[in-house]
Records
---
Amino acid sequence: MAKPKRDIDPVEAKTAILDYCKRKGALVAGVADLDAINRICPPGHRPADMMPRVKSVISLGVGGQTQGAWSVPAKALGYFGSTETRGYTIAYGAAFYIENKYGVPSIYCPPDMDPDAGPRVPLQSLKVHAELAGIGARSLAGDILLHPEFGYMYFASVFTELELEPDAPLETNPCPAPSCVSMYKSIGRTPCMKFCPVQCLDGEVDTETGAQKVMRYDMAACAEMTQQFETVPATLMDAMKAEDEAAREDALFDPDNKILWYKLSAGSGGLFAQCFECMRVCPIATKAPMADPILRYDAAREERERAEAMPKAAAE
């Protein structure tokens, strides 16, 4: 087993690791409470089931779509709306950063499905990691995590044998937004519930406090429309069962199914849960203070200009 390169200050190490994630493009990063993860996640899906000597779980979040993406038709947004691979790239690099800088074993946590549990059960819950690390809170939109400042994000995780102080979950949940509470009071639904194409979202809002009361999510209905990787074997089965050549040709070359073959040949991420209609109408996802990449760029530029001006002012 590799030994640490030197005595490690856990406070300095945590700061350096989270700063690395942000330099590489993460909007937020934090450390989840490992004991809390173990209380929530079932056996077989806890960090130690993947990395036996894990001491810390680092979670990071990257921004979702560009501001312009929310205005395009759903059929186009389904092709380019996801930025999740960017988060995975940062997490992969962070694992190497920790090993190179501190000499402590670390891994990028695969975001993929557990081959023993089926196509809807992940190896690890990146969402639990992010929620406990304080970089997102559960929404009425199928438990999608939202951040009060950055809105809708994708998350990635790193496991390490380096022990770091955990962060706390967000003290308040930004969902539902005040406008969503007002709509709920009026029609009994929030925007995400109203505009879900397959009506897979439902829930209740405490109209006195404006907080979530109950969240219901029909994952099967959502997956049937959006997770087209499950449609491929069904299409092939229809073709195999066809009674004659004409029926088999219809099954394989139906105009809708041709899109499936295109997505497969192009390696399109559009096979994976590419429906954004609940987020398109979510005021937190689209209108949180730093949800807009244009505003984030402007804020970063102003911060750089202030930093550059400080030495000049001091010299004068």
---
Amino acid sequence: MTALPQPLRQAMLGDRGGALVLAGLGLAAVLVPVFNLALPDSSALHLPDYLVSLLGKYLCFALLAMSLDLIWGYAGILSLGHGAFFALGGYAMGMYLMRQIGARGVYGNPLLPDFMVFLNWKELPWYWLGADSFLFSIVLALLVPGLLAFVFGWFAFRSRVSGVYFSIITQALTFALMLAFFRNDMGFGGNNGMTDFKDLLGFDLQATSTRAALFALSALAVALGYLVCRLITGSRLGRVLMAIRDAESRTRFLGYRVELYNLFVFTVSAVLAGLAGALYVPQVGIINPSEFAPAASIEVVIWVAVGGRGSLYGAVLGALLVNYAKTYFTGALPELWLYLLGALFVAVTIFLPKGLVGTLPALNLAGLGNGPHWRGFWRRPALEKVKPAPGPRPQE
């Protein structure tokens, strides 16, 4: 904590949950690669390669959920299209990985990806130029989602679109992008998307060491993303955002340019989502238009709601728990997993309306759930005896 800059150190004061998350991410970044690379397969602590990639995918989802919590939990901006920024970052990285295949593709074309050869493309589109550079692709993965969020938010916030109307138009945005990327003439693989990636910066993506390194990078990205978000929310800017969330008209009356504050935090959130998508693609090995589906963005909202919005680390916790439950149910109960997940979401909405993080402080853990929150739920509190008002004092 003492090594952090002064503004960030002040923002982290009293943030025990965030400190625990950062400590957990640091431990995971070290222990997971060690348990995967250093321990033999016969060891009970050995982590197989597929589990390392699965955990890395969970961390990418955690970063995506945290980016949504930044705008929903602190600025009151509910986006139902945040998966669009995630997918754009993933496509930017996918373009680089496709260019790295070169002549090793099915058709052996050193310049054109396989899907372009199959569709009889004669030359590489202009927007693919520079995709063979890793640095350019990283900048693209951050710039494109940020630029789209800036332009979209500029018109939306200046028009004072908010609430459910903003949620609807963000959902329309991701749906329109999904339909566009499904088209073969867009030059992004159409329905099949991009896959069959070979290597990243010369390192084999199927190698155990590469998977472990990508996991460590994902953990580092989540930690840095958390620090950035905490720096914003713990500053004067964050207090203005919460004022806009709680009383936008009053904040505007006080002279604050509400649309500029919303535009800034919305753009930062989109950049974080694009970074999550760029880390996601090399670990999963595919990117296709299904990532733009509105249902995918709604699922991100569920992660944040389950963990507890307005805390940042609650979004991380919710993303990890829900995706782990999804993986467990699909393997253990493949016929019922959708119903079980639906029941989980309904139960959280009814019993934990503030999410896991918002409810835990109300639990008396020593009393095994007999805290004030649950005591009022399980039984009706006894009516207090009404004491009669004291009568007039007798005159002497």
